[in-house]
Design a protein that fits this description.
- The chain is an alpha+beta fold.
- 22% of the residues lie in helices and 34% in strands.
- Strands 6-7-8-3-9-10 form a 6-stranded mixed β-sheet, sandwiched between helices. It has a 5-stranded antiparallel β-sheet with strand order 13-12-11-14-20. The chain has a 5-stranded antiparallel β-sheet with strand order 15-19-16-17-18, with no helix packed on it.
- The structure holds adenosine-5'-diphosphate (ADP) and magnesium ion.
């Protein structure tokens, strides 16, 4: 068990001049479940491979526990990595696969006897619910079973940390959800540091103690799922986290001597703010689909046409249009009666505002409450 520290880490592949990971600073606590999330190509795998020692570190330092590991061989880092394709040995049974690391070499200076190997493999296979499959070969297993065997094989070495690179992406949706909870359960049981890579924001929100959101090799925000969702640090995080994605609108800042107000003309929203005033006159407003209040067409508000709707179960996503304006909102399915026209209103406190220039969240306040957060949550 150990924490992992990345200090100003950068990576530039030999055949290219461009840094694919830039000045990455990340402190992963011992026993933490940290999720690294971002779109394909943003550098997630590269980060994991640098921690594992499979990729050279161009700049900066990586520590595992107290030890600086920059030049340490992968086998000496005492870390287990589980990939997207589980790469089990096809000619070995499940038992053989799980036992492989124990037979291969001494673990932590101990050479295992046959009896000990059998005992360890059995214990771990019970934990991962593959104990009934020990005599089967990989080709006789389902995707989920193979995945659990790969995990068992990684765990048998009792590594200081687990690195997982999109381990669920080959599974179907239902199995993904089941395996997600199994990995979390496993994390609680083994009490080891996990660094989990995914491009799937739902996976990140549901699994992480903390999430690091990456884009173009740069970490955009590191925080709890709650903070990342309710206080996205910038426009990228706001767009990337949450499904369906946040709606964005142009907004203008109107200052006079007494007060500052922000107007979203398209939506007929005017909001007085009492925090620091943005320097810019034109800013961007963001509203999550679930923070739009949909009422019947006769009520007050902005009239919109329903272009189409998507039934998601207990919730329905409405795609609304009016002239050039398009937005998505999420309503309880039981409240939606298939109307062709609706009115919308806005929970003003849940609107986020971003700078058009820096794209940072402006962190504006209204009556002492930071806008964009849950009602009643005060920020100093
Ligand atoms: N071995 C390599 N040589 C050169 N460029 C690479 C290599 N591996 C990855 N890259 C590039 O580095 C960037 C990040 O890749 P990767 O870490 O695999 O992203 P992710 O896992 O987030 O999809 C991509 O632009 C990719 O093309
Ligand atoms: Mg990858």
């Amino acid at each position: 068990m150990a924490g992992i520290l990345l200090n100003h880490v950068g990576k530039c592949y030999k055949n290219s001049r461009e840094y694919v990971v830039k000045d990455l600073n990340l402190e992963i606590q011992d026993k933490e479940f940290l999720v690294l999330v971002g779109p394909s190509g943003c550098g997630k795998t590269t980060v994991l491979r640098m921690i594992a020692g499979l990729e050279e570190i161009t700049e900066g330092e990586v520590f595992i526990g107290e030890q600086k590991v920059n030049t340490l061989e992968p086998k000496d880092r005492d870390i287990a990595m589980v990939f997207q394709n589980y790469a089990l040995y096809p000619h070995l049974t499940v038992f053989g696969n799980i036992a492989y690391p124990l037979k291969q070499r001494k673990i932590k200076g101990v050479k295992y006897s046959k009896k000990e190997i059998k005992k360890t493999v059995e214990e771990i296979s019970i934990l991962l619910k593959v104990n009934h499959l020990l005599s089967r070969y990989p080709k006789e297993l389902s995707g989920g079973e193979r995945q659990r065997v790969a995990l068992a094989r990684a765990m048998v070495r009792e590594p200081k940390a687990f690195l997982m690179d999109e381990p669920l992406s080959n599974l179907d949706a239902q199995l993904r959800s089941v395996t997600r909870s199994e990995i979390l359960k496993l994390h609680r049981q083994v009490q080891t540091t996990f660094v989990y890579v995914t491009h799937d924001q739902t996976e990140a929100l549901t699994m992480g103690n903390r999430i690091a959101v990456m884009n173009h090799g740069v970490v955009q925000q590191i925080d709890t799922p709650y903070e990342v969702f309710y206080h996205p640090a910038n426009l990228f995080v706001a767009k990337f986290i949450g499904s369906p994605a946040m709606n964005f609108f142009d907004a203008s800042v109107n200052k006079n001597e007494e007060k500052t107000s922000i107007v979203i003309e398209e939506l007929g929203v005017c909001l007085e703010i009492d925090s620091k005033t943005p320097k810019e006159e034109k800013i961007i407003a963001g509203i999550r689909p679930e923070n739009i209040i949909v009422t019947e067409a006769e009520k007050n508000g902005v009239k919109m046409q329903v272009d189409h709707s998507e039934l998601m179960g207990t919730e329905t996503i409405l795609h609304l249009i009016r002239n050039d304006l398009e937005l998505r909102c999420k309503v309880p399915t039981e409240d939606y009666r298939g109307e062709k026209e609706v009115n919308i209103q806005f929970d003003k406190e849940k609107i986020h505002f971003f700078s058009k220039i820096t794209e940072q969240n402006l962190g504006l306040c209204c009556s002492g409450v930071r806008i964009g957060c849950l009602p009643g949550v005060l920020h100093s």
